[in-house]
Amino acid sequence: MPRSSLARSIDGKAAALALRAEVAAEVTRFTAATGRVPGLAVVLVGEDPASAVYVHSKGKATIDAGMQGFEHRLPADTSEAALLALVDLLNADPVVDGILVQLPLPSHIDADKVTTRIDPDKDVDGFHPVNAGRLAIGLSGFVPCTPLGCLMLLRAELGDLSGKSAVVIGRSNIVGKPMALLLLGDSATVTIAHSRTRDLPAVVRQADIVVAAVGRPEMVKGDWLKPGATVIDVGINRIDKQEGKSRLVGDVDFASASAVAGAITPVPGGVGPMTIACLIRNTLVSAARREHYQMEKRL
Ligand code: GUN
To answer: Rounded to two decimals, what is the model's pTM?
Structure first.
């Protein structure tokens, strides 16, 4: 049922700036106490333009937070062995607290092999099987940045998530599965929906919280939603318009969803900025753990 008022737009950009400022303040205290600056190494193989933009943004956020950034740009024909050798060097380097190898990798490199080679205690992406396992059984480790950012937005919007019904659409290892585990950790009642789910609109309509992470432009429509639901849109889809122009849209049809939801993240300006803020948060957390430094604030 469309409502007369539109959903609140969840300002991920502002939330990300606030988190980045908190991380920067904590980095200052960490450095004063330990004499060390947290360091993040980012590895980019090849020239994929979208990946180059992401890596640039990650490097800038690292410097802005008062941390050290180590950027490694390797040619597209870099061998798997050479990349693994670089990961070994970064694992052993004491000034490196976090390691991120930008995905996707060229097809001649086995991404799982590379991800698994990173020291789990420097794995600020949270992609290593050890960190996936820690998340699954409730041990502290590193949680992938995008679902962590979504959880932070949901807590800020709704407060306690306990007992709420949540539907995560998408079952990827990077977003859907960790998102579901994080929501479960906050005592939500969680359903994971995917391409084989029967009557997806009916499943989504049960949910107080909807997280869409399927990579299908504007798939979730307003009439799929329970009135007042909180909607987190992880999708970033570039769709072509006329005259060679394109625009970014999410996995949710923002116009129709805004008429039914209580609150919704826009694309762009919703989840995206939180991913990078969570990366620098994870890097600070890694440095603090490695130095046995107690952070003043729980970020
Ligand atoms: N490619 C797109 N998003 C990500 C991310 O969060 N981490 C890495 N390593 N690669 C990505």
So the answer is: 0.96
